[in-house]
């Protein structure tokens, strides 16, 4: 069992868990009431200790292995999505289907790479996921449109890729103790960004496409995705980096807030990523 | 959903430069720099350990995390100079007849200027004596001659930028610097994908790497990562000053 499944179970008891585990709050001030709900639901005590671990993970430093397991979940979500998507017949052009095949193969390679990396660390085997691990309706939000509506399929793909970029970015500092793993994570991270750019291009260029959608993220614009996906973009509007204000005029070239926000992608925490992908977990 | 996603302590990057170890390093380098300058004035070309002079046409990036930041600053200067020149071409709109493509290139110019100015401000504010000077771009006219040559040069710069950050991440010791590098590298990767797609749609993450042997994404689904020495070997022809990376960390 991993943090993800734990949170999924807890969500059934406490729908506000993701608000509670905002890492910027003191999670333990919520812990009293939370424990009572768990007791009322007769959740085994052993589960509580795992929950404790889950809470601990929202603190500063998950282990390298925990980060890899977290990445493995995200890569499986993407791989199983593209496995189905690339097999559909709803692409208006061969180019789109080809692109999805390319991305599917990359996600499969990432899954295999991460499983090998986790196995190489010893201990328990990496978690295995199947298509049944995922809910392609996004907990009912998308109905059956995920693989029957081309615009919806592209929107979901963009959502996964932009989330993946932010997830790896947020995890990178936790991998600094292991140069090999850190570099590999960065090498996956930039591939996800390449995917994201292409998906955004596909959405711009499709029939009745999203006019003006760019390969990069402007402010916190969700680019026509459902409001439920806003969390993927919140925070991207940042225009100050390490106390440096990025806006200004330099040699006659004006960097406005839009350009300043586009020039830097922003990380997400594990808890934030979990909240985004939770509806897609069966 | 939490709105504040900036998990990087804003002061971290600055504190990293101010911490005692770095201050001690700084004093060392200042001392070495003075000594080396004296040697130069005496007609010797020994410029070891100089971090901020191009007296001899050589720019030493320096060592430690600041050296890596200077390395990134050098690459961002090169990219910004290139796209600034592209967008300023008198025939820009005849070379790029699509308004969408002109917007893409203008956006990328702005992003690279933003990156360059960020590094300039961040290094200057906290390690002013160690920042490298403004470099002189050496862009061959052929690189700006046609849509195809501009995009080919852009592809080299963007893929090289991605590979540079991917290879440099592990060389940093300060996690705040790593976070900043991570925020920039994915934007470079978005640029690289779009430029590649402008050359041939669908090549965003496939096909020959160009900047090294093999494909841009390998059989493990990994993007290219290159060492500073590898990156600078490719970038040096585009910079008039000689870049000395010999003091950069290697692990």
Q: Which helices and strands, and how do they pair?
A:
The complex is a heterodimer of chains A (282) and B (251).
Chain A: H1 3-13, H2 17-20, H3 31-40, H4 45-57, H5 64-85, H6 94-120, H7 150-171, H8 179-205, E1 240-241, E2 244-245, E3 248-250, E4 253-255, H9 257-262, H10 270-277
Antiparallel strand pairs in A: 1-2, 3-4
Chain B: H1 12-18, H2 20-41, E1 58-60, H3 64-87, H4 92-95, H5 99-127, H6 147-168, H7 175-199, H8 228-235, E2 242-244
Parallel strand pairs in B: 1-2
Give structural notes.
The complex is a heterodimer of chains A (282) and B (251). Helix content of chain A is 53%, strand content 4%. By secondary structure, chain A is mainly α. Chain A has two domains: 3-57, no CATH class; 64-232 and 265-280, Ferritin, CATH 1.20.1260. Chain A has a two-stranded antiparallel ribbon with strand order 1-2. A two-stranded antiparallel sheet of chain A has the order 3-4. In chain A, 48% of the residues are buried. Mean pLDDT of chain A is 85; it is low at 17-59. Chain B is mainly α and 251 residues long. Chain B has one domain (65-241): Ferritin (Up-down Bundle), CATH 1.20.1260. In chain B, 56% of the residues lie in helices and 2% in strands. Chain B is built from eight helices and two strands; from the N terminus they run ααβααααααβ. Chain B has helices at 12-18, 20-41, 64-87, 92-95, 99-127, 147-168, 175-199, 228-235, and strands spanning 58-60, 242-244. A two-stranded parallel sheet of chain B has the order 1-2. In chain B, helix 1 (12-18) runs parallel beside helix 5, helix 6 packs antiparallel against helix 7 and helix 6 (147-168) runs antiparallel to helix 8. In chain B, 53% of the residues are buried. At the A-B interface, helix 6, helix 7, helix 8, strand 1 and helix 9 of A face helix 1, helix 5, helix 6 and helix 7 of B.
